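Subject: Sanity check before I submit

Could someone independently write out the structure tokens for this chain? I want to compare against mine line by line before I put it in a report. The sequence has 254 residues.
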Amino acid sequence: MSTEAVQQSSVLELPNFIGLAAELNHNNALGHFLHRWESALYALIVIGILSTIAFFATRKLELAPGRMQSGAEFIVSFIDDFVCSILGERGHQYTPFIGTLFLYILAMNYIGLIPFFKSPTADLSTTVGLALIVFFYIQYTAFKELGFKGYADHLMGQPRGMIAATLIMPVFMFVLHVVSELVRPISLSLRLRSNIYGDDVILALFASWGLKDGFLWLFPNFLLVLLTSTIQAAVFSILTLVYFSLVMKHGEEH
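---
Independent answer below. Compare away.
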């Protein structure tokens, strides 16, 4: 990597310890491994952090809970109430998925705000993986709720009477819905990645101005990035809920 490329890279994102380790070992297999799997390693770090918190919050469940258990119960209860407000009583079975998705994305967004760490969600490979998980789970739920014929009928817009007989509108609606389904993971992944990457670039830009000139801009933008990171995790999760609700509401009508 040339000096110019390194300088350009340092402006686009803040340095992180895995990236620095990869640069120090750029001539050997370790460096190539760290560079290729940098975002995946940070994602694993986030999993480790969340798993550790969950373990200590639930290892000794008590009727009179301590602070960690109370905090965990509040978060679970809040997420469950929100999911059920959209999906109804059947939403309880989807709370673990939606809650895990939200907390995982939120933690991945936040970890990039820690010095020498990086947000895995600033990498498109991470957000595409998350979006594909959502996509396939929704398709599975649709087939489970509606069956093959019911899902096909849903995709065709539930044509009846003369509309069904013409075949033109059902085929048009089927193509439109299929394209819409395929676009959803692209939209989810690009929206999350672009916003988090943009936040990282802004922080890196102000940090590159130095402590004297950059701090006055860095601190308020840090708070703004904290807010947008929360919003992006919420948007990803809410859109996932909406996709579930479309399938489940359609299934309930039958």
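---
OP: Matches mine. For the report I'm noting this point. Residues 192 and 232 are 6 Å apart (CA to CA).
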